[in-house]
Specification:
There is one protein chain. The chain has five helices and three strands, in the order ααααβαββ. With about 160 residues, the protein is mainly α. It has a three-stranded parallel beta sheet. β1, α5 and β2 form a beta-alpha-beta unit. The chain is elongated and about 70 Å long. It starts with 8 loop residues before the first helix and ends in a 14-residue tail after the last strand. The C terminus is likely disordered.
Length: about 160
């Protein structure tokens, strides 16, 4: 993973800075302003994306990678589980208000059980059944990693 070469990132940043400095030294003063402005615009755009994604900015892949969510495990440590379970609980609370009754919902969680168990309410019941062609009657689906979930969510029961 990333931690195996994280120590070289500062050196790469220094080398990139030296390279951009050399590039700016070679271009004329008018072109230097255009190149500097372009670089600044790309850096500011990337920073704005990371600010908007906070606190999940570590899940971001540059758009040049393309389709990262389908190719890589995004949230390996399942840090989004708390927010997902809270949002799901709020959603089923609204469903129960509309329906005029309270019921228990089976949730297929394709990820770690502990983060789900720490946050769920009594009306949400865990199941490990993440397969698309199973006979269980799960009502909701939470997938936290590409490798643990089927390629697409099952149809609603």
């Amino acid at each position: 993973g990333l931690r195996h070469f994280l120590f070289v990132v500062p050196a790469f940043a220094v080398l990139a800075g030296i390279g951009f400095d050399a590039l700016l030294d070679r271009v004329q003063s008018r072109t230097r302003v255009v190149v500097g402005t372009t670089i600044a615009a790309f850096v500011l755009w990337n920073a704005s994306v990371l600010v908007r994604l906070h606190p999940y900015q570590y899940l971001y892949f540059n758009q040049l990678v393309g389709g990262a969510a389908r190719r890589f495990d995004m949230d390996y440590w399942v840090n989004v589980m708390a927010e997902a379970v809270n949002n799901l609980d709020a959603y089923v609370t609204e469903l129960d208000k509309v329906g005029g009754h309270s019921r228990r919902y089976t949730v297929a969680v394709c990820g770690e059980r502990v983060p789900f168990e720490e946050r769920h309410s009594a009306r949400l019941q865990w199941t490990e059944d993440c397969g698309r062609n199973s006979s269980s009657r799960r009502r909701t689906w939470i997938a936290t990693a590409r490798s643990t979930a089927a390629s697409s969510p099952p149809s609603r029961a």
